[in-house]
């Protein structure tokens, strides 16, 4: 998968805040040890087999701090890389490279971790016509990057936030009374004509949601047997999304039921980071 368009207007704000957090009034260790005009060359290596993601972001970390730095990307985001493969080369001021090293690697390790973890789920369900979705369980302030990394791993983004999709959750239903009332109110007030998705936890609620015209029905923490029955009940008249406690051991059995989507919070709330290091040459 090639790089997709990145909104650096927003990403630069994230990076600038992160640089301010890390550097503060200055890198006192590097500035004490390294001469101001010294230059060097560094390589960024993937220490694990991984799907790489975040190289353009790492590049911006260095270039925002020092626009004279030369950062050469060796692979595309979304590519599978091998252990000890060089993914980028940096030439420029030694102080800049040492000062920005950790922040650039933090972005790379997290985003590559998300992409790699997403790819592992995709491999488990590649025989089935199902999409792997992310959720809103992202690091606050980093959703743009987290969801970008999911795409680099082959996943599909669910709604970005509360503003671009109608998703009626359990607590919404408790507030208004029942599934039918919730869907009717959402459809009546849905001035932008978003598709209406509703979360259900029983097969009876599946039937209620279908009769009320839900476009997408989220099957929350249902057993595989219940999901299979839900697929039979719906019969293709609405899309079905499986959600809740999905892991690498269970995802294929869920895909076999015939659901259209599987949403996985752990893609972004607890992905294993990829080991990526920077070495001076």
Properties at a glance:
281 residues; alpha/beta; 6-stranded parallel β-sheet; 4-stranded antiparallel β-sheet
Question: Secondary-structure blueprint of this entry?
Answer:
Layout: H1 8-23, H2 28-33, E1 39-46, E2 50-51, H3 55-65, E3 70-73, E4 80-81, E5 85-93, H4 94-124, E6 131-133, H5 143-152, E7 166-168, H6 170-176, H7 179-189, E8 196-200, H8 203-211, E9 216-220, H9 224-234, E10 239-243, H10 251-256, E11 261-263, H11 266-269, E12 276-280
Parallel strand pairs: 6-11, 7-8, 8-9, 9-10, 10-11
Antiparallel strand pairs: 1-5, 1-12, 2-4, 3-5
The largest sheet has its strands arranged as: 6-11-10-9-8-7
How would you sum up the major sheet?
6 strands, parallel
- β content, as a range? 15-25%
| Alpha-carbon distance between the two ends | 30 Å
Q: What structural class should be given to the helix and strand makeup?
A: alpha/beta
Helix content: 40-55%
The radius of gyration computed from the alpha-carbon positions, rounded to a whole number of angstroms, is: 22 Å
The SSE string, one letter per element, is HHEEHEEEHEHEHHEHEHEHEHE
């Amino acid at each position: 998968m090639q790089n997709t368009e990145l909104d650096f207007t927003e990403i630069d704000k994230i990076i600038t805040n992160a640089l301010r957090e890390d550097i503060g009034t200055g890198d006192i260790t590097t500035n004490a040890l390294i001469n101001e005009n010294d230059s060097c060359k560094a390589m960024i290596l993937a220490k694990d087999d991984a799907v790489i993601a975040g190289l353009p972001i790492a590049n911006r970390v260095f270039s925002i701090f020092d626009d004279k730095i030369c950062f050469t990307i060796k692979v595309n985001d979304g590519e599978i890389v091998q252990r000890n493969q060089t993914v980028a080369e940096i030439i420029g001021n030694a102080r800049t490279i040492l000062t920005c090293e950790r922040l650039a690697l933090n972005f790379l390790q997290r985003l590559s971790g998300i992409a790699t973890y997403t790819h592992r789920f995709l491999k488990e369900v590649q025989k089935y016509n199902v999409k792997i979705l992310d959720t809103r369980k992202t690091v606050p302030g980093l959703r743009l990057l987290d969801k970008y990394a999911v795409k680099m791993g082959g996943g599909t983004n669910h709604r970005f936030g509360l503003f671009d999709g109608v998703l009626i959750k359990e607590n919404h239903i408790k507030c208004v009374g029942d599934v039918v009332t919730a869907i009717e109110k959402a459809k009546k007030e849905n001035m932008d004509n978003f598709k209406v998705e509703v979360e259900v936890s029983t097969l009876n609620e599946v039937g209620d949601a279908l009769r009320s015209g839900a476009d997408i029905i989220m099957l929350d923490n249902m057993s595989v047997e219940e999901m299979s029955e839900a697929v039979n009940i719906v019969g293709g008249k609405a899309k079905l999304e499986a959600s809740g406690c999905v892991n690498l051991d269970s995802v294929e059995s869920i895909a076999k039921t015939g659901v259209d989507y599987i949403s996985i919070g752990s893609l972004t709330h607890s992905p294993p980071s990829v080991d990526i290091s920077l070495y001076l040459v």
